[in-house]
Amino acid sequence: MSVTLRVWRQAGPAEPGKFVEYQAKNCNPNMSFLEMLDVVNDELVHAGEEPIAFAHDCREGICGTCSLVIDGKPHGPHKGIASCQTYMRSFADGAVITVEPFRAKPFPVIKDLVTDRSAFDKIQQSGGFISIRTGAAPDANSIPVPKDNAELAMDAAACIGCGACVAACKNASAMLFVAAKVSQFALLPQGQPERAKRVLAMVGKMDELGFGSCTNQYECSAACPKQISHDFIARLNREYIKATFSTAFKPVSEAGGGAG
């Protein structure tokens, strides 16, 4: 099969970008979309042209690095898979395929299809962890966890931080990402001591970095390669409200301040 690619080319963050057409001929229908780009890049290098820059790592749908918008959809036409798991058999022979980077102000383009998603790292670093000393690893059954909570926490922890939720949202909201990272700890006993501090810090950092607000369009969960449910956003809102009130009504001695 053969397809025509309309690829976004941009030399750098401060440079103007444009779509450039390339022909991908004699593609094996069973090759992945990234393998097809590898073949196109080999041809460009042999022709003395600059190859297309795109991000990739594991190519197994685990790392979340392959951030491509394919025909207007983050990660491509299918649900529940990343760009690296999209195969050429998903497209018709002779199709014209548009390939773009994730579009969001907090994800500036570095080059071509590569974006800087370190904003997610900054949100994670602001509170997406457990810092209390727990000693040695406990036995698996020493801390009882309700089955429903354990399964929900595992569902939230499946988030790979790819940013498809932000790219799909018309407001470039990171609420689904933050909701998953907050919920995976809020549902477990180990996450309770820093529960309020965590959600306030992560939501605050998200707002500081310029992500938009959530208006419940649910495009985020539709585009998520791990199918993280938008129900976690409702959980995040509840966690945030509870943390806000618990902090506001703490005794002065606990809040760490006093009258001047």
TrEMBL record:
UniProt domain 4Fe-4S ferredoxin-type: residue ranges: 150-180
Listed InterPro entries: 2Fe-2S_ferredoxin-like_sf, 2Fe-2S_ferredoxin-type, 2Fe2S_fd_BS, 4Fe4S_Fe-S-bd, Beta-grasp_dom_sf, Helical_ferredxn, SDH/FRD_Iron-Sulfur, Succ_DH/fum_Rdtase_N
CDD domains: fer2
GO MF terms, alphabetically ordered: 2 iron, 2 sulfur cluster binding; electron transfer activity
SUPFAM superfamilies: 2Fe-2S ferredoxin-like (SSF54292), alpha-helical ferredoxin (SSF46548)
Ranges where the 2Fe-2S ferredoxin-type domain occurs: 1-103
UniProt cofactor(s): [2Fe-2S] cluster; [3Fe-4S] cluster
One of the protein's GO biological processes: respiratory electron transport chain
NCBIfam families reported in the protein's UniProt record: PRK07570.1 (NF005746)
Family, similarity comment: Belongs to the succinate dehydrogenase/fumarate reductase iron-sulfur protein family.
Protein name: Succinate dehydrogenase
